Amino acid sequence: MKQTSAVVGILSLIFGIAIFSVQDLILKLISGDYPLHQAMVLRSLTAIPFLLLLTFWMDGTLRTLLSPTWPAMLARGLLNFSAYTAYYLALAAMPMATTVALYFTAPLIITILSVFMLGEKVSNRRWMAISTGFCGVVIMLRPGGTLFDWAALLPIFCGAAYGLSMVLVRLMGTKDTAAAMAFWGNFAFLGCALILSAIYGLGGYGETGHASLQFLMRGWVWPTLWDGFLMCSCGAIAAIGLTALTQAYRVSQASVVAPFEFTFAFWGVLWGWLFWGDLPDNWGWAGMTIIILAGIYVLRPERAPVAN
Question: Which pLDDT band, with edges at 50, 70 and 90, does 174 fall under?
Answer without folding.
Answer: low
